[in-house]
Amino acid sequence: MKPSRPSISPRHPVAVFVGTRPEVIKLAPVVRELAARGVPHRLLSTGQHRELIDPILAAFSLTPDHDLKLMRPEQSLAGLSAALLQGVDALLHQLQPSWVVVQGDTTTVAMAALAAFYRQIAVAHVEAGLRTRVRDDPFPEEMNRTLLGDLADLHLAPTPAACRNLARQGVAANRIELVGNTVIDALHSMVELVRDRPLADFGLPELHRGRLVLVTGHRRENLGEGFDGIFRGLGRVAREGGEEVEVIYPVHLNPKVRRQARALLGDAPNVRLIEPLDYPAFVRLMTAAHIIVTDSGGVQEEAAALGIPTLVTRRTSERQEAMAAGVAELVGVEEEAVAAAVLRLLRDEQLYRRRAVASDAFGDGKSSARVVAALLNADRNSVG
Ligand code: UD1
Ligand code: UDP
Prior knowledge:
Blueprint: E1 14-18, H1 21-36, E2 41-45, H2 54-59, E3 66-67, H3 77-95, E4 99-103, H4 107-118, E5 122-126, H5 141-151, E6 154-157, H6 160-168, E7 176-178, H7 182-194, E8 211-216, H8 225-240, E9 245-250, H9 255-265, E10 271-274, H10 279-288, E11 291-294, H11 297-306, E12 310-312, H12 320-325, E13 328-330, H13 335-347, H14 349-355, H15 367-380
Parallel strand pairs: 1-2, 1-4, 2-3, 4-5, 5-6, 6-7, 8-9, 8-11, 9-10, 11-12, 12-13
Helix pairs in contact: 1-7, 1-15, 3-4, 4-5, 7-10, 8-9, 8-13
C-alpha cells in the first residue's frame, strides 16, 4: 500500500519532533533553516525530557508549537513508547504533515517514525546510519537506529561510514544524502557567542586548578557495573592526577545515574558534581576543558570538533571517526582502564599534543542547509 502523499504546503507542513536534550540541540539549526527558507513547519515536543530540554529550547529561542509532556520519573521504555505512539499519532491526525523529521536514536525517534509509518507519512531521519552492530549496545539506541534504517524514507547521514552502513542495510542510494552532523552547526553558532566570556557569566564555578577533566555520563547500559567502574576510575584520577587536576561532572537528571554518582563521587576530593548545564554554559565549559570523559554521543562529536582529547567510557562506539582522527579513545568502563587512560593523557605531554587536534570528521557547520535542501528535493521528487 502506498497512497499518494501530500507535498509540503501550509496545509501539510513539515512536522519536526524533538524529545530529549540532544535532539533539540541537533534539530535547532534545522528548524532555523526551515524558517529562513520559508518552509511551512511545526516544532513538536514529545516531552520525553522536561527540565533538560527547557533551557536548551530557550538557548535557541525556540518554543514548540505543541508539547505532549510525556516524561515520567524513572519512565520505563515500554511505558514511554506506548504513550509516545498514542500521543504522536493524535498530533499527526490533527496536523496532517507532509513529512515527519526526527533526529538520532531515542525512543521519541523510534515511536514518532513508527506512528508516521502507520499513517503512511514520509519520514526524514537526521543522523541516519550510525551503527555499532552490537544489538544491545547502546541500549536501546542501536535497535532504534536499525528500525529507522527500514522505517525512514529519507536518510540524512552525517559521515561516509554512516552512508555505507545504510547501504549495507539495503537502503536505496537515492534515499541517502551525506550531509554532515547538524551538531556542528549548533556548536559553531554557540562557540561564537560564549568563547570569550567569563565562566561566571554562565553561573559556572571558578576553576581553581589548571587542568579541568570534564565528565558526562548517562547511558542506560552503563548503569550499575559500568558506572561503578567509571566513577571509581575518576575518583582515582582526582586523587592521583596531581595538584592541577579537578573533575567537574554535570550530572544527568536520570535518578539512577544521580544515585550512583552521589554514592561513588559525592565525597571525592577535587570532584564537583553539579547540575546539568544549559547549552551555552556547557559549551563554555567544554572550551575550558583539558580532557573530556564521556559516554555521550553529542559530546564526542563536539569535543572532536573543538580538538579536546576525549576518553569514551563505553564498550562500543558508533563514532569511529573520532577515534580515527586520534582525538578520541574508546577506553571501556573498567576502573583500571578509565583511570590509566586519563592519567596517561595528564602525564604524557606528547601524547596529549598528538590528541589535541580538531577534526571536521563530523561536519563543517553547514549541515542543516544540506538537510533542508535534501528534504525539499526529496519532496519535489516524491521520494517519500
Ligand atoms: C535518553 C535517550 C538517550 C539519550 C539521552 C539524552 C532513550 C531510550 N534514551 O536517555 O538515547 O542519549 O536521553 O540525554 O530514548 N529525567 C528528568 N528530567 C529530564 C530528563 C530526564 O527527571 O528532563 C529523568 C526522569 O526520571 C526520566 C529519566 O531521567 O524518567 C530517564 O529519561 P529517559 O529519557 O527515559 O532516558 P535518558 O536516560 O535520559
Ligand atoms: N549538554 C548540555 N549540558 C550538559 C551536558 C551536555 O547542554 O550538562 C549537551 C552537549 O553539549 C551535547 C548534548 O547535550 O550537545 C549531548 O546530550 P546527551 O549527552 O544527553 O545525549 P547523547 O548525545 O548521548 O544522546
